Amino acid sequence: MTTDTGAELQRDPEGRLRHFLTLEGLGRDELEQLLDLAQFYVRTPGDMPPRDQTLAGRTVANLFFEPSTRTRVSFELAARRLGADVVNLDLQSSSRVKGETVLDTIYTLQAMLVDVFVMRDAEPGLPAYVAQHVAPHACVLNAGEAHVSHPTQGLLDTLTIRQRKGDLRTTSVAIVGDILHSRVARSTGTALLALGVGELRLVSPASLMPEAGELADASRYHSLADGIRGADVVMALRIQHERIPDSASLDIDAFNREWGITAENLRYAKPDAIVMHPGPMNRGVEITNEVADGPQSVIRQQVSNGVAVRMAVLATIVRNVQARNVEAGRRAG
Ligand code: NCD
Predict the structure, then answer these.
(1) 183 Cβ inside 6 Å of ligand 1
(2) Do 173 and 192 meet the contact criterion of CB atoms below 8 Å apart?
């Protein structure tokens, strides 16, 4: 299987996004266009959901081979609000557990005219691998690839920070907790650095810190107080037990004492700092109830933005497919 992150692979010969596999290689303008389009689709609870027909005639399959609540539901709502048909493959009932290869599943769905594949999997490289094998009119969107990347989450986090803090170039963001196993930290960090964030801090115990080569422009802290001191944004991450072979031996109480975000230690950050979490939260471990439900928390705003970001990504990819079809028609005619 390819280990290509997909940065080249996700583009068509004209350089447009054909798939959405990674934020690597996306420039500032391209990221800002996606964020601006997402902002256009943002609504708050109580509003009517935005609707248009950009995806009319498309069929989206959500293939989630790892658990998901927010991401799967938000991709489904995003696709429906853009007029697509949607099918959700339940991982328990999919044929993969009976030994069918992922490509056979993809080809089976393609034969039923599915043309947009949204994938989450524990195996690194799978979205890029599938992207190399789908039909020319089909596209693949990464909804979480092992510990490697989660590009739509990176965009929704960035959108939330932009909404609350304005200019990213004067904003200091601290990501706290199990960064080593976090695809969210990698994608959110990649987006923020590409957009020229004022400061990106990785705050975690040495055992949960990625190698220096990853997110190389971030600063690294091994103390919570130092890491969040004066920060504008504090993002908590859960310990991702499913990616830690000997996770049963982890001392959760010690982690909570040293790295858990509490009302008390949040005072090290700026008084108007916002608190983020991609979910699912382990309340009482990496974050207290008081902080998760408190006035500085923007965790539900992140969830609202998730639908808007996925609408923006789906609309962009499908418009690019249409542009290619028009050009091909012109060449043929
Ligand atoms: C995250 C994920 O699946 O990577 N959740 C999400 O998509 N909102 C984070 C996590 O599982 O901890």
Answers:
(1) yes
(2) yes
Is residue 240 within 6 Å of ligand 1 at its C-beta? yes
Listed in order, the ranges of the chain carrying CATH 3.40.50.1370 are 28-149+303-332, 151-298
Ligand 1 centroid distance, CA of 279 (Å) = 6
CATH number, span 151-298: 3.40.50.1370
278 lines ligand 1 (CB under 6 A): yes
Question: CATH for 28-149+303-332?
Answer: 3.40.50.1370
Amino acid at 129: Y
Quick: pLDDT tens for 180-232.
999 999 999 999 999 999 999 999 999 999 999 999 999 999 999 999 999 99
Give every strand in the sheet of 85-89, ordered side by side. Answer: 85-89, 59-64, 116-121, 139-145
Indicate which atom in ligand 1 lies nearest the CA of residue 240.
12
